[in-house]
Design a protein that fits this description.
about 230 residues; alpha+beta; 8-stranded antiparallel β-sheet; about 20% helix; disordered N terminus
Length: about 230
C-alpha cells in the first residue's frame, strides 16, 4: 500500500501549480478541497458504472468500486478502477477525505490521452489543472439518483481549447470534461464524463478510398449507481 503522502503528491500534480499562491477557484474547491466522504459511515462500498462509446476503437462497459473501512479511527479507501486489460492501478488511501474515484478517473483519462496521442502525462495534467484554475464553468443542475431528484453542481472544462500546442492534439481540441457533484449522494460525486466529437457511423480510409478518416468520437462516463450498506 502506498502511503497517503504519495497519493497526495499525485493529486497535487493536478490541484497545485505555479499559481498556487493565487486564490483557489470554485472548481478546484469543489473537486479538491471538499471532504466528499465526510457523510459516509464505514464500512461501505460505492459502485459506479463505466461506459465508453467510441468510433476509434471498440467501446465497453465496466465497473468501478470504492471500498471504505475504518482503521484506527481513520477512513481508509481502496479503489478498484475497471477490470481486466482496462484496469487502472490506484494506490490505497490510509486516510481518505476527497473521493479517490475522481483521481482514478483523471489518471485513466490522462493515460488514455498519452496512448492515443503520444503526448506527455505531465503535460495533460498541467492542462487540466490550468483549466480548473482559470477557465472552468461552474453551474447548477438537477440529477436523478435512485429515483430521487436532487440538486447538484456541475463543473465543465475544455483543457485543450486554447492550448498553444494544439496542433499536436488537433483532434482533441474540443474535448470536454464534466464533473457532477452533489452533497446529497454518497461520496459526493454523481457523474464524471469526458467527451470529444459527435457520434457518427464508423468509416475507414480503407473501406472508403479518398474519404478522410472520421473525426474521433470518444465518450467516457462514470456514474454512481449504488452504495452498500444503505447510508442514513
Amino acid at each position: 500500500m502506498m502511503c497517503r503522502l504519495a497519493v497526495f503528491a499525485m493529486l497535487a500534480a493536478l490541484a497545485v501549480g505555479p499559481a498556487a499562491a493565487q486564490q483557489i477557484s470554485s472548481a478546484e474547491t469543489l473537486l479538491f478541497e471538499t471532504d466528499h466522504l465526510a457523510r459516509l459511515k464505514a464500512p461501505a462500498t460505492l459502485v459506479y458504472a463505466f461506459r465508453k462509446d467510441s468510433n476509434v476503437e471498440p467501446g465497453f462497459s465496466d465497473e468501478v468500486r470504492l471500498d471504505l473501512a475504518e482503521v484506527k479511527g481513520k477512513l481508509s479507501a481502496t479503489l478498484h478502477f475497471l477490470s481486466g486489460e482496462h484496469r487502472q492501478d490506484i494506490p490505497a488511501l490510509e486516510e481518505a477525505h476527497g473521493n479517490p474515484v475522481l483521481l482514478g478517473f483523471l489518471e485513466h483519462d490522462i493515460a488514455e490521452m498519452k496512448r492515443l496521442t503520444g503526448g506527455s502525462t505531465s503535460y495533460f495534467r498541467k492542462r487540466i489543472r490550468m483549466a480548473l484554475a482559470e477557465s472552468a464553468q461552474v453551474g447548477r443542475q438537477q440529477i436523478v439518483y435512485q429515483g430521487r431528484t436532487l440538486d447538484a453542481q456541475v463543473v465543465r472544462i475544455q483543457p485543450y481549447l486554447n492550448d498553444p500546442m494544439h496542433a499536436r492534439f488537433e483532434k482533441y481540441v474540443h474535448k470536454m470534461y464534466t464533473f457532477v457533484l452533489s452533497e446529497q449522494v454518497p461520496g459526493g460525486l454523481y457523474q464524471l464524463r469526458t467527451s470529444v466529437g459527435k457520434p457518427e457511423p464508423v468509416r475507414t480510409a480503407a473501406s472508403m478510398p479518398g474519404v478522410p478518416a472520421p473525426v474521433p468520437m470518444i465518450d467516457e462516463t462514470l456514474t454512481l449507481i449504488s452504495v452498500t450498506p444503505k447510508q442514513p
